[in-house]
Design brief:
With 103 residues, this protein is mainly α. Helix content is 50%, strand content 10%. It has helices spanning 12-23, 45-67, 71-87, and strands at 27-31, 39-43.
């Protein structure tokens, strides 16, 4: 997990967004036990469900578009998308909520 300070990533906008997400029950916040100067945000079960649903919808929409492509061009696109998701540390399609490394 990456620790972000409000100065590093947008100041008041990050603080406001984090407060709204906490109030909505999507994330929890706690003091970083290692430094005690930073706040660590983590997804709650509800937050994981929102991310899972959004990821599932996005993958479904992409699959529909790919299915409409000529088969001769699909292979290259699929390889490029797999490389893209790997480079972005995207969890695999079968990842289990809570086991997602980037949350």
């Amino acid at each position: 997990m990456h620790a972000l300070t409000s100065v590093d990533r947008g100041g008041d906008a990050v603080l406001t967004a984090s407060r709204l997400l906490v109030a909505a029950g999507m994330v929890d916040r706690r003091q970083n036990p290692a430094t005690r100067r930073e706040v660590v945000l983590g997804l709650t079960a509800a937050g994981h469900e929102v991310v899972r649903g959004a990821t599932e919808r996005r993958r479904s929409e992409i699959a529909e578009i790919v299915a409409r492509m000529p088969q001769s061009t699909r292979h290259g696109l699929v390889e490029a998308l797999l490389a893209f998701t790997e480079a972005g540390d995207e969890p695999s399609a079968g990842a289990v909520p809570g086991d997602v490394g980037w949350f």
